Amino acid sequence: MLYQKDICIVGAGPGGCATALFLAKAGIPSLLVDKAVFPRDKICGDGLSGWSVAMLNRLNPALKEQLAGSREALPSWGARFVAPNRQVLDVPFVDRHQPDARPPGYVATRLWFDNFLMEQCKAHPLIEVLEGVELEQWERQSADQVILKDKAGQVIVQARLAIFANGAHSRQAKALAGLQPDKKHYVAGIRCYYQGVEGLHADGHIELHFLKEFLPGYFWIFPLPGGRANVGVGMRSDVVAKKGVNLRRAMLQLIAEDPQLRERFRGARPLEEVKGFGLPLGSKKRSISGDCFLLVGDAASLIDPFTGEGIGNALASGELAAQWAQKALEAGRWDAAFLRGYDAAIYNRLWKELRLSKTLQDLLNYPWLFSLVVNKATANETLRQTISCMLTDLDVRQQLKDPRFYFKVLFG
Ligand SMILES: Cc1cc2nc3c(=O)[nH]c(=O)nc-3n(C[C@H](O)[C@H](O)[C@H](O)COP(=O)(O)OP(=O)(O)OC[C@H]3O[C@@H](n4cnc5c(N)ncnc54)[C@H](O)[C@@H]3O)c2cc1C
Fold first, then answer.
1. I need a labelling partner for 176 at 20 to 30 A (CA). Which of 93, 145, 336, 355 fits?
2. Which domains does the chain have, with CATH numbers?
3. Which InterPro entries does the protein's record reference (predicted)?
């Protein structure tokens, strides 16, 4: 069957679903195609940051409420940082004991979360969903028409605009936009679900362990509902290659041999094999549109270079892609020169934060400085509060680029 729609979205992860839902909100129909049949897993840390929750709220406040009310999502009230010298710093993002306190973030498996978004798409009359179809080939037939074919070369879709939200391994990001993997701006990540890890924080703090062996990346433990935890490591690919690290072996060795972690994992049981996937970082600007196409989410390389979070930016780029699809429809323009406005809109919104996160990633080249800030903050309530604000407020976070901040930490 041939599907004919002005707008076809390839990939129904958070980026693709958000694009379809924002388009639908503006009254614009779309076709949403995924190679998988949902619910499907996606290798991830499963952390839904405050930014992801804010984007969900922007899409539809009812979604935020449903997330908050679901037993599948564990509220996360803060973060626990473990510095390279093993000093532990717990930073609550909000005071949960305030009467109106709402958790800023959650941890929920992607198996559940992505299906939650997909269900919204399936229920919307303006969104036509096609599952189990891998769109591999693309041909531009005229100035305002593209066709998309499946693996067998059969034409499945005819559209004016293709929005590729098909993730870190998007072929079209390479073939059409020329986005080549760049190891300095790419992270290799692995994940394993465990049951029964000891010592998880009572307020669901996510744990980020900045251990020397994984810098400039980290080992994480993110608590999930039901006594499970998402455990993993992310490390920049150029460093993995340079040091010849086998991430899977290194993580299992850490869990088995590290004196502190060994105790916490003594009674824990892995629920699966360790699995890996790539994280294309947004630490450099790229061209993310062209004649009759836009890239969204991981396909556009928009992951935060310090935290490894990509869901919030996938949702945010989905909103902007929907806006630019609407503009293109109204103007009857599908050419690269017009759609380049989408690139500008993306970087206007996200670049300040992405650049700052790159600075923080660079800071991890100085583990002693990181350890020092954590050391001081454990003994200093004001500094702890400043760091808590930094994690939620971009303007306060700018201080981290200012050498005077470190001077104050050292001598203040
Ligand atoms: C180990 C690891 C840990 C991470 N931890 C976090 C975290 O804790 N918090 C966070 O915010 N982010 C995290 N991320 C990043 C996050 O997973 C991604 O940024 C996010 O999934 C991007 O969403 P997306 O919609 O762009 O792509 P995806 O979620 O990858 O979705 C792409 C979709 O496209 C489909 N698809 C692919 N090719 C085709 C095709 N040819 N035709 C049709 N469909 C296709 C796929 O089936 C998939 O459903 C992590 C990533 C990794 C690898």
1. 355
2. 3-66+109-181+281-360 (3.50.50.60), 75-103+183-280 (3.30.9.100), 364-411 (no CATH)
3. FAD-bd, FAD/NAD-bd_sf, Geranylgeranyl_Rdtase_fam, Geranylgeranyl_reductase
